[in-house]
UniProtKB/TrEMBL annotation:
Origin species: Candidatus Uhrbacteria bacterium RIFCSPHIGHO2_02_FULL_57_19
InterPro entries for this protein: NqrB/RnfD
Transmembrane segments: 12-31, 37-55, 109-128, 134-152, 159-178, 198-215, 222-240, 246-263
Protein's name in the database: Uncharacterized protein
An annotated GO BP: transmembrane transport
Gene Ontology CC annotations of this record: membrane
Sorted UniProt keywords: Flavoprotein, FMN, Membrane, Phosphoprotein, Translocase, Transmembrane, Transmembrane helix, Transport
Pfam families hit by this protein: NQR2_RnfD_RnfE
């Protein structure tokens, strides 16, 4: 009871804003490119401003758009530092618009930041770089440790574990099919799974509370497994069709499939 009460008192949205902002700043210093902080500030400001004024016009009220700060910071940590300023402006505006327009009841159908990044990636190959989480071993340690805390606070281990199980099995199958020996398989899997990109994806994007606010724990577990299977399928498809990012595309596919299934069940 005491542990549960302590967890519920942690303001997760404010924590996420602080964590993602610190990750952005830390990564900018770690890569010796402080211009990334300026670019990140522009992205976050645009995302929050569009959401704030859109809500004001529609609902006649002001509010603190913490969720848009989070979306903007996700984009800032993932969008390539080499992306032109036009796409840097488009991505946060699109994310705010997707949040406002594409939803079912109180729940977003798609993760807004993920959908905006995929759209940018379609027109600007290489736009998604995951630089904020994957610039070195220090970033890996930070994302891993904080990520475990986030999963505990959000109580979302039951989404991540099915995803990882299916994803690891599928990845093992792909590696064996590609000719990797059984003796080398475990070492390659460890390298692929102990990765800042995967840690960031599973602890920030995959478990995003609003897009995973399904009615039951079982549905959320199925969602995690579906995204894991789709990540492997998209990886295979990307050999023939240009897909900006397999993980984000798989998440968006899972968002849609489970949302449509739950809508049908509700009806």
């Amino acid at each position: 009871m005491r542990l549960s009460g302590f967890r519920s008192r942690i303001p997760i949205k404010k924590f996420m804003v602080g964590y993602l902002a610190a990750l952005l700043i830390f990564g900018a210093f770690g890569t010796n490119d402080l211009n990334r902080i300026l670019r990140g500030a522009v992205i976050v400001t645009l995302c929050a401003a569009v959401d704030l004024f859109w809500t004001k016009i529609r609902d006649k009220k002001w509010y603190l758009p913490l969720s848009s700060f989070i979306s903007g910071l996700i984009i800032a940590n993932l969008l390539s530092p080499q992306a032109p300023w036009g796409w840097l402006i488009f991505a946060p505006v699109a994310a705010a618009a997707f949040k406002q327009l594409i939803h079912w009841g109180p729940r977003h159908i798609f993760n807004p930041a993920g959908l905006a990044l995929i759209v940018v990636g379609i027109f600007f190959p290489g736009a998604i770089s995951w630089w904020g989480a994957a610039w070195g071993p220090t970033a890996l340690a930070v994302v891993g440790i904080i990520g475990i805390f986030i999963l505990w606070r959000q109580q979302r281990f039951h989404i991540v574990l099915p995803f990882l199980a299916i994803y690891a099995l599928g990845l093992a199958g792909l590696l064996l099919r590609a000719g990797v020996s059984v003796s080398d398989l475990s070492a390659i899997l460890r390298r692929e799974l102990i990765d800042g990109t995967l840690f960031f994806f599973t602890t920030i994007m995959l478990i995003e509370p609003i897009t995973t606010s399904f009615a039951t724990r079982k549905i959320r577990m199925i969602y995690g497994a579906i995204v894991g299977a789709l990540a492997i399928a998209v990886s295979l498809a990307s050999r023939f069709v240009p897909i900006p990012d397999a993980l984000i595309a798989a998440m968006l596919g899972g968002n849609l499939i489970v949302t449509l299934a739950t809508i049908k069940k509700a009806r």
